[in-house]
Amino acid sequence: MRLSWRGAQPKCLRRMAVLPVAALLLWAGRVFAWDAATTHAGLTERALEASKFHAVLAHQMGLALGAFEPLKIDRAAIDADTLRGLKSRLDLLDSAGGYRPSAEGVATAIAWVKAGAVLAKTPPERGRNHFLEPRTRTGLDDSPGLSGFAHAARLTLGEGASLRDAATGTAFDLEGSPATAWLWADQNDLGLSAFVDNWELSVAAKEPGRRENALVRALLALGGIMSALEDMGQPAFVRNDFRGEFSDQGSALEIFVADRYGAVALPRSATPIPRPDLRSFFVADDGKGLAQLTQQRFFSAGTLPKDFTCVPGDGDLEAAGLVNQTLGFAEPKFDVLELRQSDRPHYLVRDGVKIAAYRRVGNKIHFFLDKAVYADLARTWLPEVMAYAAGLVDDLLGGKLQLGLASDHVTIALSAVRGEPGGPVEARVFAEDEAGMRRQVATVGLNGGEPVVIALPKGARRIAAVARGRDSAGGFIATGELSLP
């Protein structure tokens, strides 16, 4: 339930609330979301396996081993500051997780995506921008107000963050951008802009080392985008419930999932779920965004009904109605409450899934989440989360340029986009020589699926093309490569 003083709290009261900050500093909540090193890595891998990721890399990007192609950070083809920053972040990854690159900077394509999903939550405070309340389209909002300052001060005093960090918001202050806004934010180096720009550069750059570096950076960003969507399957992240869900130890739900499944034992993904456009994977007018479905179906720890005191004459239906009045969200809700005393908890069950537990002690009914609830959520909902993430991958990688060889000509056609192109699409065409160097040889306009013919460049060993455009579902990027005999 959201409680807010904003717009009503007098300034003098806000100032007075700062006085007991020392007591508030003892609270040490942290953003964890799904455990990055295990759950996010596992969700991402399962989603990639269910998607067209391997086929796109193998057939459109010219990587013979597809998802398992070893890719290396070419230190000679990246500036020193960028290399140093990237290396410092990669060094934080768990070497036992299977996604940290080797000392030589080598990892498989799928491992680079998993690394991006983990880096999106490393350090955990980066998860502040993975919240999304789908009714209002807002992000993490510390409704009581000043405790956000207290938390930032605790970070400053207790975890080495500077006063400048607290003042500029780089220390976590219990507020953040909505996940959808963060996805498109230019400052998000693991967001949509980073993915598209580097995906294009992985085709268009002249030197092979620069192309490989760009592909690695694009795959890291793909993992960051998937991580943000996967958090839409965690109820606290779509119910603005940082305070109720997270303690010093983190979230009980996330700890349960990490302990039970680790990174490799997660349930298999369902069939990839297509959506009309990228944003609709998160939230949409049809109500089928992942954030909306999660919010409607599950409670988080801090959005359960308040404890209810029974009085003589209360019936199961009447009690349920009174309890529902304490809820901050329309769904889920209780149709009936079992008021009899029992040593075992009663459960609210929806479609065969336990979503809340409660027990009567004396005249009071207490609501809580337990391991039976967590187990049902993980068993039934994690496959749906992966199916949405797999659908997102297919959406991002769905653009395809079909290249063909006909005598001394090359044909180029836009063969796959998500919707109808919004007019002609400009494609850049490159010829690659025996040394792996590429040069642009043509710019062609593609209209629908009609092929365009260009002369075969002399000395070319490979032809590559990339196009950026817009269709009825938004912006897209399409690529294609063709090896020559």
β content, as a range? 15-25%
Shape: elongated
- Per CATH, the class of the largest domain reads Mainly Alpha
Describe the largest sheet: 7 strands, mixed
Number of helices: 17
* Percent helix range: 25-40%
Poorly predicted ranges: 1-31, 145-170
- Which sequence of strands runs across the widest sheet? 12-11-14-15-9-10-13
Number of domains: 3
What's the CATH topology name of the largest domain? P1 Nuclease
Q: For the terminal residues, how far apart are their CA atoms?
A: 65 Å
Q: How would you characterize the overall build of this protein?
A:
This protein has helices at residues 11-17, 21-24, 36-50, 53-59, 80-90, 109-119, 147-158, 163-168, 179-184, 192-204, 208-230, 235-238, 242-245, 252-261, 290-297, 316-324, 371-396, and strands at 70-72, 106-108, 246-247, 250-251, 308-309, 346-350, 353-361, 364-368, 399-406, 409-416, 425-432, 438-446, 452-455, 462-471, 474-483. The chain contains 17 helices and 15 strands. It has 485 residues and is an alpha+beta fold. It starts with 10 loop residues before the first helix and ends with a strand. It has three domains: 31-141 and 176-301 and 374-397, P1 Nuclease; 305-368, no CATH class; 399-483, Immunoglobulin-like, CATH 2.60.40. Helix content is 36%, strand content 18%.
Summarize this entry quickly:
This protein is 36% helix and 18% strand.
Protein traits:
Immunoglobulin-like, 36% helix, alpha+beta, 485 residues, seven-stranded mixed sheet, disordered N terminus, P1 Nuclease, 3 domains
